[in-house]
Amino acid sequence: MKSENRPVILVHGWKSHTRIWRDLISRLTDHGRPAWAFAYTDDHPEAVATDLRRFIAGKRKESGYTGDIDIITHSMGTHITRYLLEVMDGSTKEEDVRTLIGIGPPNNGSSMAELFCDAEHGKEMIRRLAGVFVPKSYIPDGDALVQEVRPKSPTMKKLKRAGLRDDITYRFILGENLTRSAAFFPVFGGRTPVYGEDGEWKTTWAGDGVIPHTDSIMAGGTYEVLPSDPLHLGKRPWRYCHTTLPGNPEVIRRILCHLTESDGDSARG
User: In this structure, are residues 155 and 45 in contact, taking their beta carbons and an 8 Å threshold?
Assistant: First the structure.
């Protein structure tokens, strides 16, 4: 397999599925890029990351491809992928990855996960989000993925200590309610909950309804906020909220642009 046909690994988010990548896979295929979509269910992030490692190894063996790969992730998928690359593989760097593109990533931990577990507000938030972002009658206590993406969890502490790898280019795509439309994510009137270091809850327009920018932004990565033009929020503002970002046409265009730019850099290198 030629380097210009570099495979792209796709890792979906929490309580999601590989179908969210349907439109992106179609565009990747048009560009001659094999798309390997990884599926998982609730488990500890380390267990899921181990399964991801096996998945990548299996696909490499099946295809015969031995070069570097690109990885595109959404939400919790970024958390899991970073755990594999930085904590499990950070010292040996056996996973040959060129670029990681994370959509709505909880890089610093998830305010929403913390909110689910909040003694005062948790049950009400889960009730409001039931059928929208969480399953009905959802109980977070036994959900290891949610517990370990909380900002002060053991997993997040390991990620913070490990830091981003210097041999991987990290790009993150964030959504924002630039027009302050309530239809952006109606559950919170278009705003996004934020958990502060002081333990206080706030809401912000600078987020995608689920992940505020403060959960995502960290040193070492490059970021872009979409939509690039607020007018894109006009008729369908919800296309830029967290759950719909992977299928958003502008997000897909930006992903393809980043991959093409990296292809050019690799050719020049």
Answer: yes
pLDDT tens-digit series, residues 48-89: 999 999 999 999 999 999 999 999 999 999 999 999 999 999
Q: What is the pLDDT of residue 268?
A: 46
Q: Which of 20-34, 70-84, 114-128 has the lowest mean pLDDT?
A: 114-128
Q: Is the dihedral of CA 57, 61, 66, 69 positive or negative?
A: negative
Does residue 268 or residue 228 have the better pLDDT?
228
- CA distances to 52, 67, 150 from 7, rounded to whole Å, are 15, 9, 31
Domain ranges across the chain: 3-109+142-194+203-268
- Name the CATH superfamily for 3-109+142-194+203-268: Alpha/Beta hydrolase fold, catalytic domain (3.40.50.1820)
Number of residues that this document lists for the chain: 269
Q: Which residue has the tokens 């040193």?
A: 219
Token pair, residue 245, equals: 């970002």
pTM, 2 dp: 0.94
Q: Tokens in use for 197?
A: 């270091």
- Report d(CA 22, CA 30) in Å as an integer: 13
DSSP-based three-state secondary structure for 110: coil
pLDDT at 221: 94
Q: Which residue, among 219, 221, 218, has the nearest Cα to 168 in the 3D structure? A: 221
Residue 198's pLDDT is: 79
Beta carbons of 218 and 162 less than 8 angstroms apart? no
User: Which helix or strand (DSSP H or E) is residue 31 part of?
Assistant: none
